[in-house]
Design brief:
5-stranded parallel sheet, FAD/NAD(P)-binding domain, 6-stranded antiparallel sheet, 20% strand, alpha+beta
Length: 408
Amino acid sequence: MSDAVKIAVIGGGPAGMLAAIKAVATLDRAGVADAGEKVVLFDKNDILGRKIYLTGRGRCNITNTRPWSDFSQHIHPDKGFLKHAFRSFSNEDVMRFFEELGVPVIVLQGQRVFPASLKAADVARALEKRIHALGIDVRKESVDLNRFMSLLSEGPVVLATGGKSYPMTGSTGDGYQFASGAGHTVTSLFPSETALMPKEYNRDLEGLEMKNVGLSLFIDKDMVQREEGDFIFTDDGLESGIAYKISRRAVWAMVNGQKVEVVLDLKPALSLEKLSVRIARDVTEMPGKPRMRSLLRGLMPERMIDPFISANPGLDIENLAPRLKEWRFRISGYKGYERAVVTAGGVSLKEVSQKTMESKIKPGLFLAGEVLDLDGDTGGYNLQIAFSTGALAGCSAAKRLLTFFQAD
């Protein structure tokens, strides 16, 4: 095989850049001269890692420090598939990797890891700088299906094109077409970690940041998930934090025609009995006849009072406690890929080796990141998926390239 044979990495996002970097490292350890020149990275954007700049609201939650036993509980739909890749390039490896690139990290609430600067740009630029330092051939050009199939016939290919979320960053779902062209099955796709829109949404709620509350997800009247933490009422509905955590199942249910309802618990730290006792105490301490608005001022933000009263007709002192624990929102829609953080669904995991990320359908094709039917909750899990699968795919592609050279 000629020295002209190279590894083609399609996609310059987090998975693609890690694949390219780790491919070079593997070739270098094997004694391949000018290892960087044996890797070509294709990306249609002017800058690499464009989507990284948007992650974590511009702060870039690069991973989460939880051990695998806890970390794996936040991976969907098959946590076991990620196990080998995670152990090959773990959350500890990710933190050490960025520290070595000159990006110190910090751990914040929820064991989430960020660059110490809290600037996503520092992460993206560090990766791009490393790509260029290694001498990797970066080509700022689009790849269509014909070009993809041609590259696949010439040598190892890592497909890391991302999903369909945030299409303005170049994530337009091309990878699914490429994978299908290579014979792969692509499961149903839908937006995840996205805003949920309540029916008859009260716009007075927009901008309210909810702290330490509970959200319960009901599908066809059955409670299927409960989360506690923070979220925001935005112009698109319930968004961020725990709203994102329940959005995956909520969106999938709506896609399948099921009824979705979210119940907001404004006082999750208090049982119904304790909350009732507190309200009774507040009533006795109020001079004169107790007024509902005065009571609510001690229980919620001022701006929430009118929407809460409007949503709870017949509100009185007797039913106030249960209403505070169960504010019900019928969900009528969700925000699409233009606002969704993650694309759920993708290339079937049954057709990809979890030990190498190599296709079981098309030898020499390796898949990584969001193009796979693999996603995680908000909190650093999705970038870790990208880094781990990208690193493993890059190492495996390099080992495949070495067999080509040995065949000569």
